[in-house]
Amino acid sequence: xxxxxxxxxxxxxxxxxxxxxxxxxxxxxxxxxxxxxxxxxxxxxxxxxxxxxxxxxxxxxxxxxxxxxxxxxxxxxxxxxxxxxxxxxxxxxxxxxxxxxxxxxxxxxxxxxxxxxxxxxxxxxxxxxxxxxxxxxxxxxxxxxxxxxxxxxxxxxxxxxxxxxxxxxxxxxxxxxxxxxxxxxxxxxxxxxxxxxxxxxxxxxxxxxxxxxxxxxxxxxxxxxxxxxxxxxxxxxxxxxxxxxxxxxxxxxxxxxxxxxxxxxxxxxxxxxxxxxxxxxxxxxxxxxxxxxxxxxxxxxxxxxxxxxxxxxxxx
Length: 316
Hints:
Blueprint: H1 2-16, E1 30-33, E2 48-52, E3 58-63, E4 71-75, H2 107-115, H3 120-125, E5 128-132, E6 137-145, E7 148-155, E8 161-163, E9 182-186, H4 189-197, E10 203-205, H5 229-232, H6 235-238, E11 243-246, H7 252-265, E12 270-272, H8 291-302, E13 306-307, H9 308-311
Parallel strand pairs: 9-10, 9-11, 11-12
Antiparallel strand pairs: 1-2, 2-3, 3-4, 5-6, 6-7, 7-8, 12-13
GO molecular function, one term: 5'-3' DNA helicase activity
InterPro entries: TOPRIM_DnaG/twinkle (IPR034154), TOPRIM_dom (IPR006171), Twinkle-like (IPR027032)
Protein name: Twinkle-like protein
């Protein structure tokens, strides 16, 4: 009876903000509903994922249309509702796993990481979580500074990516280099986790993709260097480091990213990883691809490093 009363209170509160949840919405399950904020867009999608926790104490929701992103939670007792915000609103300083409707990884995603030789211990240490979408769950890589959530990047198992807009530009894993004299920079969150599995905690990842080619322009002033604000936002951390290992992808964009990073960080302290060959012609693409071998060949991979000035234009 108590659970039924709570569900009734939740339904009434959700009605007030436009979320239609009838008696068929059973606690403990997820439902795809119409979002009262964006109305499902032009295609009228059922883009709002709603979940009432099994006890009926509260409900939480999130719209998975990229243009919307409305999220929040509402309580059956007297506590105030968190009525969410859209992805376009500024979130710096007030993001939390509750406001982003994040939850612990399900068994399916834990298995997904396990197949890539990434342990549950590493996932928990990096506070990797999930968010539930219309048809599947997405991995949530939480970006933290001094232990506080400052941003979040999402990835589905079919490799679709998106990020929370309006959040600060930071490197992934920045807390792991607080006292580092040497660090490793990789091109993706999965690569950072893979390098950690090999025993190297002093690893960070860039938050976005690589450029298609190296720019021929001079480096712009910091305030105008928008594509690399994540470097300047972490400048205090990076300035303390004497050696930087650039372990970006082996493809052309990855090489271009390594060059752009070296130009900004100082080529005199940057060294470049050459990933090993997986056959007679092709190299492994990144740290995650070579995870199965990484713990064995890690010293072979990182030992014959070349200083960036040997690989790139010395005149920069």
